[in-house]
Amino acid sequence: MSKSVIIIGCGIAGPVLAMLLKHTGIEPVIYECKTETEQAGLALGVTPQTFKVLNILGLAEKVVALGQSVEHFISYSELLGGTVLVERDTGSLFRRLGWPMVMLSRARDSHFLCDSAKGRGIPVHFNKTLIAVRQAGDRVTTVFEDGTTSEADLLVGCDGLHSAVRDFVLPGTDAAQYMGLVQIGGFTPTPDIFKASKPGTSRQIFGDGAHFMGMPINDSQMLWVTTFAEPDEARENWRRLSINDSSSKEMLSGLRAAGWGNGAKELIQGSTFITKYGLYERTMRDVWHKGRVVLVGDAAHPTSPHLGQGANQAMEDCYHLVRLLCKAEPLEDESLEAAFTEYEHIRVPIVSLAVAGAKKEGENRVMSGERHAKHVTREY
Ligand SMILES: Cc1cc2nc3c(=O)[nH]c(=O)nc-3n(C[C@H](O)[C@H](O)[C@H](O)COP(=O)(O)OP(=O)(O)OC[C@H]3O[C@@H](n4cnc5c(N)ncnc54)[C@H](O)[C@@H]3O)c2cc1C
């Protein structure tokens, strides 16, 4: 008899995992706390290694077409008068790995993956907030806020940074900690200043105590995002804020990058919406499972976004987890324990490096004065 799997979370990892499982004959069902149509967040970068995972599902070319490949990369220092620190042709570098690196709207990516899962007959239930997990024998039961329950052979937590499944797997461990950094960003119709640039040019600017990025996410729109230190915690609900609100206007005009050159000013001024979110971390654990319950993506290993690894590491988790579950057939307590342990042995060292690297990069991005100048001259 085919096994049933409950997946909590229909962000990025959830639908990809569901489709990979379905591909192998396992029956997944997804529960998501948000509404089906929510538009939230900014953008994600999808790397060549992730396209290899999406290609198993026949979705790689379609995701490439949803965004803009990164062809060219320029880094500037605002403190050193806007000078170019480094300029690279990245397109050919990535293509040597078989696929491009693509920037795309996170909402677009998430909706596309969810629709693809539904199109393959995977049930997706929205407005379902997981509040408790019970495990008895070889069955797992999930309890939702609306009082309903569901039961399956396995449960996978793809429920992100504040994962409720993680509370069951690792009870009593630390909550997500605010890292003292926030990001504010938005989408802007491509400003005139960039219309003659090489297609797919991404830019970053190191400034005094702040960092700015501007990159195309399709033919007509660019993402911008600035990082800086802020002592007051800003929760990440990823909600898009209207730029007509007086608080948004105040937020934008107060940004250090609002007056910077190399297109930062134009990108900020042309925003169609903005979002503000704090950056969070959780202690890296080397166990991500308990019995028949296992964690994937941010639920297991949230990362700050500076190296663009969150979605990519999440999808690599999906690939390895499903590969190991296939190897573990028939799925009994012992074979599952072996599969989940091997999954952790493969993934923990790799994601630990990605998470630590992203944290370090975040610290570099908000350096001020002399430390900043020393850093950019040493690194570039
Ligand atoms: C709305 C949203 C917007 C984002 N925007 C960006 C962005 O612009 N840039 C960026 O770098 N990262 C963004 N992220 C984070 C990014 O998607 C992840 O870091 C990364 O893709 C890993 O994906 P994941 O599937 O593990 O987690 P996520 O993408 O965070 O997905 C987790 C999913 O689980 C759901 N969920 C959480 N708790 C429960 C519960 N108790 N019951 C049921 N469902 C639950 C969430 O609603 C979400 O859909 C965003 C996350 C969210 C949720």
UniProtKB/TrEMBL annotation:
Which keywords, in A-to-Z order, does the entry hold? FAD, Flavoprotein, Monooxygenase, Oxidoreductase, Signal
The signal sequence is 1-18
GO MF, one annotated term: monooxygenase activity
Highest taxon of the source?
Eukaryota
Q: Which SUPFAM superfamilies match?
A: FAD/NAD(P)-binding domain (SSF51905)
Q: Which residues form the FAD-binding domain?
A: 4-355
Q: Name one Pfam family in it.
A: FAD_binding_3
InterPro entries the record matches: FAD-bd (IPR002938), FAD-dep_Monooxygenase_BioMet (IPR050493), FAD/NAD-bd_sf (IPR036188)
Key word Flavoprotein present: yes
Keyword Acyltransferase among UniProt keywords: no
Recorded family membership: Belongs to the paxM FAD-dependent monooxygenase family.
Q: What name goes with this protein?
A: FAD/NAD(P)-binding domain-containing protein
User: Organism, per UniProt?
Assistant: Calocera cornea HHB12733
Lineage, uppermost ranks? Eukaryota, Fungi, Dikarya, Basidiomycota, Agaricomycotina
